[in-house]
Structures are given as C-alpha cells and as structure tokens.
Amino acid sequence: MSQSALSADNAVRFLTRRQGKKRLSTADILTYAYLIFGTIIMFGPVAWLVISSFKPERGLIEFPPTLLPYWQQNVLIEGYENPLDLYDVTLEDGTTRRLAQVSRVGIMARMIDPENPSAEPIQVNINQRQPVRYVNFSLDNYTGAIQQFPFLTYLMNSIIVTIAATLVTLLVNSMAAFGLSKYRFRGRDAIFLLILSTLMVPVSVILIPAFLVINEVGWVNNLIGVIIPGAATPTGVFLLRQYMLTIPDELIESARIDGATEWRIYWQVILPLASPALATLAIFSVMWRWNDFLWPLIVLNRSELFTLQVGLNAFQGDLNTQWHYILAMTVLTLLPITIVFAILQRYITTGIATTGMK
Amino acid sequence: MDTAEGRPISRKSGNSPVDLMTRAGAWVLGMGDYIFAPLQKRIGHVRMAYVFVLPNLLIFGIFILLPMFLNFYYGFTSGESILPENRVFVGTDNLEKLLECDNYLDPNTCDEDLFWHGVRNTGTYVVSEVILLVVFALLTALALNSNVAGRAFFRSVFFYPVLLSPVVVALIWKWLLQQDGLLNAFIVSLGGERAPFLLDGGWSQFWVIIVGVWAQMGFYTLILLAGLQAIPADLYEASSIDGANAFRTFRSITLPLLMPTLFVVLVLSLIRAVQVFDHVYVLTNGGPGTATLFIVQYIYRTAFGNRNFGLAAAASLLLAMVLLVLTVAQLRLGRRVDAT
User: Fold this and answer.
1) Which candidate from A182, A346, A358 shows the least CB-CB separation from B261?
2) Is this prediction's ipTM beyond 0.85?
3) B166-189 b/e (C-beta count within 10 Å ≥ 16 → b)
4) CA-based nearest distance B118→chain A, Å
5) Closest in A48, A63, A183 to B49, CB measured
C-alpha cells in the first residue's frame, strides 16, 4: 500500500516537476494562463481568416457567422438549367419535407419536390425553411481568385526582390559595419552619426524626392529600383557594428601579422564571428523585403512587376466587397512565409534571441 | 546526411547547398582579394576602411541623403510638377501655411487643419503604442523566460504575426472587426450590441493601436528575451541564497541588467510608431473622417493625392526636425544608460 502511494506521489511529483524541484506554483499557473490567452489572441485572428477563406460567398455575410465553412446542398433537376438549392421546409401541417427552391419573390419562395419535379410548386414563407448544408473545405475561392490574380508572377517578383535585396544588404552593411567598428579614421564618428540619424527618417518622409531620384536613374518599373535603395539600412549597420565591437581587436592584429589582407580579415575572421548578427539581419531583411509595401507601390506601376503585397492591395481595392476572393488571396500571400517559418522557426527565433542586441 | 559535426575539414567539393555556398564564399574571397589587395598596397591598411564604408555610403547618399536635401528644395517651392526645374520658389510660404493656427490644441482653428489632426493623432498613437508594446513585450518575455513547458511553441506563436505583412495584417483584422465579423458576433452572443469598430472614430483609433501592437509585439519580445537570457544565472543563484523574493530579484537584478535592452526596444518601437502608415492605410485609410489620419499619410495624401508637393515636403521637414530632436535626446539618454 505504501508502495503504491509512494509511486503515485512520485508520479505527481514527476508531472509537476520544475527545475527548482518545486511544485507548480501560483506564478507558474499565471504564466501558463497568460501564455495560453496570448496564444488565442495572437493566433486566433489568423485561424479565423483561414477557416473563413473556405466559406462560400453567401456564408460570409451570415450573422452570426458559423464556425466551420458550410456550403449549401443543391440538386440538379431535369427541366431546370441551374442546380437548385435544397431546404428543409416545415409545412403548415407540421411535417418537414426536403424541397428545392425554384424562385423567390419577397418573403415567399416557390419550391418543388426533387422526387416529383413535375408536381405543382408549393408556396412557402421563407421563415419556414432551413437550408440544407454540409461542411466543406472547398478550394473554390482559391481557384476562382487565382484566375483573376496572377499569383505566380507576383510570387516570383517577391522572391527575386527578397533574395537579391537581402544579399546586397548583408554584404554592404557588414562591410560598412566592419569599417566603422575596427578602424580609426578621420570622419568615422561623423559618418556613423549621419547614418544613425536617418534611423528615424521614414521612407515615406522622403518619398517625393526619392521617387524623383529613381526616375532620373531610370529605375521606375524595374525591380532593381525596389532592391537597391533600401539596402543601406541604418538598422543593419548599427546592429552589425555593435556586434563587431565585441570581437576582440587582437584577432585582427594577429591576422595582420600573419599577412592577411584587410579583405581577407573581413571575410574570414569578422564575418564568421559576426554570423549570429548576420543571421538576425538576414531574417529582418527577408521580413522587411517580403512585406515591403509603400516603396514597391511607388516604384512599380506595371502589374506584371507587382510584388505580392502590392498585388494583394490592388486586388482588395478592385474587388472591394468580394471577401471570398480577398480572404483566399490573403491566405495565399501569408502561406509562403508561414511555411518558411514553420521549417526554420527554431533558427529564426533563436537567431534573434541569441544575437548581440545586448 | 552531411552534418556540421561529422564533416571533415578538407573534402572533395560536392554539389550540396553547403558545398555550393562554400565555393561561392571562396570565390568572393578571391575576387575581393584580387581587387582590393593592390589597392591596399597603395593606400595602406587603415584607409581601407573608406573602401569598406563606401558602397553603403553611396547607396545611402544617393537614395536617402540626397532626397533629404531635395526635400528642402521642394519645401520652399510650389507647383504641381514633381520636376525640380518646373517649380517656383516661394520661400517659407508652405511652412507658414502649415503653422498658421489660432489655437494649437484645436486642429480645427488651423489653416491646414488636416496636418494638425495628423500631428495630434500621431502623438496619441506613438505614446500609447510604445507603452503597450514595451509593457506587453516585457511581460511576454518574462513569461517565456520562466521555466514553462512548450517554451519554443509559445515563442513561435507570439512571434508569428511579426512575419505577416501590413497588408495581410490589416486584412485579417478588417475581416475580424467588420460589422458582421467574429468579434461583433462574440459581443452579441454575450448579450451586447454590435459595435461600429471601423466606422466610429474612437473605436478606429483604438483598433489601429491594438493591431499595431499585435503585429509587432513578438519582435520586441524576442529582443527582450535575448537580453534576459544574457543575464548570468549565477546572479540569480546568489540572490536566492541571499533569500531575495521574486519581486526583489526582478527589481535588483533583472531590471537593471535588462535596461540597455529595454532602451533598444524603446528606441526601435518609437521609430516604427512614428512611421506608422501601411496597416492603417489598408485598415481604415485614415478614416472615418480624420480619426486615424497620421502624419505620414497626410504627407502621402497631400503629395500624391492633391499633388501639392511643396506643402507635403514642408510637412516632411517639420517631421524631420521633430525626429532629429528625438534622436539627439535618445543618443544622450542612451549614453547614460550604457554608462550604468
């Protein structure tokens, strides 16, 4: 008896085991409550969007909305060109029959029996009928939307911009950060302050003249015009410089004594040591570029050059109330980055969490 | 599979992505040396710093700095053309028009009332958003830093919205907040009345802030989490040996050591909040009325809607001045925080 009590006690202790070998404390319970509530808040809106994207057009204007996507059951009846919607109708004698609706005028619907289509249609008050529905995660909205929306073209443009811009950003910013952190030269502090001061300047503030410059260079309606201007990010230079400051100068000195060129020191000593910060910047850069909206909106006017974000915005503007298509396209737009995140999530989150933002 | 641990240092080159990247790296190294080694011989190794800084500075100069100066030109000229040669010099007319105000606290008494609505809305937005972001990011980071099961999962969940684009974020919430949306259904099921979330000025201002916090909090959480994990564990051990309670430990160890990271979060979130545009543009487009018209959208509208580039540029200049003051103040403050 004492044996089993002991093992039960052990089991409880095992299940509620904490690092400090204490039981689940109030603080732990509060923490879990906070995290679970937070999960609902953070993930619920996205889940609702995804579920809604499978609903038919008329299911989307229903209030209160159903949780799952219900589609109307319909039936093809001889003599009628289009499929007719099925309803469960409560007749005046109290019986319920499954009827197909032929037409509707005001609050009255004309309905026929699918079993016996040649019989005289029955007039039914619309409050007396319930639609016959079934749960269906239909892809109709997706196929319909893709037909009106060159998704693959936009996806390709977004991928090109994101990858090219990230590579340029990493190279250019890390070179600058190396120069600014490991050398003493005239104008260094001035340059750093200058770059830092533009940290607070929104792109939108210099929108007009920046567009003029792009226009003069001839990069309007060119993906390069989206890629290059944003590559000299003050944030990237700042982040990498702060990280490189923590790399001991002795390493560079000894590399120099060994006869390494400055470029080799940069490429083979500094970059590998700064890789956590570089990884962070790469993640930021991919996020920035993939999600960039205002600048591509200004630079790209031809729709075959649109990135996904600009395309989606144009799409939601064109089809103002066609929520069934907008929802499907929104899901398609968030899908690629979600898949990348699902695969790389450990690297992404620990990448940011282990960098030298300290 | 070719894992990092088991791989010999020298090996035949294959075609896996890792090998290709190694070869690409060697190629860049060789190319760089080919170009820069003779240069280094001529100018000496210290001046190589200029070479390293140059590409960044070129892009920076042409696409950020030059436009900033051009902005002055636009601010002091008028005309409907964006081409500099077609514009007329008008001196400080644009600035005066913006600043013409009977009572600065009431935007409706101002000549350019939209601008002052934008200023007031942006101020409210920045203050509320930054406070909410810092508080909730800190709370979340502390929760994730404690010894809970499923930390990696929760961390991913809180971070996930950060990856979503402002357009996607706005559409997610537009769908949730509309008259027949899920949130109103929830309120009705609790016996309430449907709220005009995006049709009422006050509600719109509220939701624009909440959506901003929702979309960005995970990012600052991760930065703070990194800061928390950088605090040496033996400090906590020492404090628990000394018998300090949780609050005392937080106040005497966690908070002071987290201060530099908190400062980074504050600066970054402030910068982002001042620039607010994208998600609001899609969610409310500044409305209803002027309720969520922010300063950047005012500039965008004035420039590309009304083609009044002069007035828009003058507003940009005023905004830039405010930002400059903020930046200097932060650099000062930052130095003090670093010193502690």
Assistant:
1) A358
2) no
3) bbbbbbbbbbbbbeebbbbbeeee
4) 14
5) A183
